[in-house]
Amino acid sequence: MTTGVNKMSESVIRSKQAQREVNGIPTEVVCTEFSNYIFVVLTQYGKIGTLISVTPDSRSNDLSTPTFSTKVLLGKDEPLTHVCAKNLAMFVSQESGNRPVLLGLALKDSSIDAIKQIKEMIKSCQVW
Question: pTM of the full predicted structure?
Answer without folding.
Answer: 0.85
